[in-house]
Design brief:
Blueprint lengths: L2 H12 L8 H13 L5 H11 L3 H8 L9 H8 L1 H11 L3 H19 L10 H13 L1
Length: 137
C-alpha cells in the first residue's frame, strides 16, 4: 500500500460517520478552504486557530503526536458562520452536520498534510485529495 493509499484510508476513517454522498463534497470544501487565498492554506488556518485560542489544537494536528479533538462549535468559531453556511447550502445539509463532519475530517487531513510536523509543499495536498476521492469510488 502506498503513502497516499494509507493517507486516504485514515482520512476515510474520519469520514465514517458522514453520509457517503457528502464525502466528496466535504473533501472539496476542505480543498477549497486550503486553496483559498483569503485563508492562506494550512499556514493561514493555523493563524486562524491561534486567533481563536485554539492554536494548541491545531498544533497537535500538525505535530507528530496524537491529534486533539475539536468540537463542531469550536470549528465553527474558527471558520465562521458564513463559511459553514455556504458549505451547508452547497451540500444540502445542515450547518450542524457540516461542522460535525468537518470536525472529524479536518484534523485527519491536516495531520496527513503535515508529515514530520512540517507543512507539505507543492502539490502534495492535491495528491492526497486525489487518492482519497479515488478510494471513495
Amino acid at each position: 500500500m502506498g503513502l497516499f493509499d494509507s493517507i486516504a484510508g485514515e482520512v476515510l476513517g474520519a469520514l465514517s460517520n458522514a453520509n457517503s454522498e457528502h464525502h466528496a463534497g466535504l473533501l472539496d470544501a476542505v480543498s477549497g478552504m486550503l486553496n483559498n487565498p483569503q485563508i492562506g492554506g494550512v499556514t493561514g488556518l493555523i493563524q486562524a486557530f491561534e486567533k481563536q485560542g485554539l492554536g494548541g489544537v491545531m498544533s497537535s494536528w500538525v505535530g507528530t503526536g496524537q491529534n486533539l479533538p475539536i468540537s463542531p462549535e469550536q470549528l465553527q468559531s474558527v471558520l465562521g458562520n458564513e463559511h459553514i453556511q455556504a458549505i451547508a447550502q452547497k451540500l444540502g445539509i445542515s450547518t450542524q452536520d457540516v461542522s460535525t463532519h468537518l470536525s472529524q475530517l479536518l484534523p485527519a487531513v491536516i495531520d496527513k498534510m503535515t508529515p514530520n510536523g512540517q507543512v507539505a509543499q507543492g502539490d502534495a495536498f492535491g495528491s492526497v485529495l486525489g487518492a482519497i476521492k479515488g478510494a471513495l469510488g
